[in-house]
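Team,

Forwarding the record for the chain on the shared tracking sheet. I've put the sequence and predicted structure together so nobody has to dig through attachments.
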Amino acid sequence: MEMNPDDPLYPAVLGSMLASTGDISGARSAYERAIQSAGADPSYQASLYMSLSGISEREGKLPLALEEMKKAASLAPGDWQYQSLLAGLHTRAGDPREAIKAYDIAISALLEAPSKITSADGRQEERDRILSRHYAIKASLHQLLKEDKEALEALSKAASLDRTNPQIFLTTATMALRRAEMDAFFQNIGTVVRLLEGMGAQGQGATLQLAYLWHGDAAKASALGNFVLRLLGLSETYLGNFREGKTILERFLGADSPDPHTRGQTLAFLGYLEMRIGKWKEAEERLQASLTADPSLWSSHALLAALYYDPLAEPDKGVASLQKALELAPGDPDALGGSLLARRLDPGDPLAPYLLAVVYLSASQKDKGKETLEGIPQENLYKNLRLALEKMP
């Protein structure tokens, strides 16, 4: 049975479906109709403006996306997630000052939240870990503005809440290097190397190379290779400086001949950076090249799945990529490195089959999508997908 077009939720569900197939103008029209018929529920209106903001950003209309997200945040003033999304938009628009203001509002709302926060997909996360990430990002923004005092205050709060957050130590190391406080730099960058996935001995080598360069021993530094460039490129990436990170990582690939795994990882990072700045085809080429270098990189398959599912609107390829990622992803949570993408693609995570179901449905493979969805507890499904499951013939 088809969903009734007179159903109040119909325009919103239609907007979501059109967006998933790449029909951006159709999705915009559907969301605009949904807003007109949304009624007086401000939280529902806020979610629609948030979706509309995402459409505007995909269209390259960042100022419009900002205005729509501001509207969403004003309709749900106590919801930290809208402020956090607004802060991210301000950051991508090159306005760290406004981003800091939005993060401050999000942090104030989080401080009033329960100790465990449940997201729309049913995942529970410690509030303190979310707070720590917000303080750490805020610190990196202060650092970009060369406001060391404010950055250190935010870092101190981030560290008091979660000592496993690598951005705390990365920002601290960057500030120490700028002030030529090398003991503090090495202490913090060493912690970053231990915390970040995939850095390993190469990251330690980069740290040692920096030490040799600082002390003027160019011969020893050269003998260690160019992994310093990779470390700095990854550092810029984790600090949100995507274009700078891309430039440095390209220098690394051009200056050295890394082993296949390192080359593959670096190309995967470049693919991620291309995605963050909206260069979809370039991102696909980078990610495919990373798998040519090292076919075992499940994270590259996962990024390709996201790329095919949404901006490139090639859901059949998305299905194949996500299935491959789920096959290759390690099951041991400790091996996942704590990254958001890794946690979401852990085959033991209840969200993994949900993601696969989304791609099946977008590829019009209804039987497989329905079978996958029916295996997930109903309370863990998004409202719209639960509705889609009920209406599915």
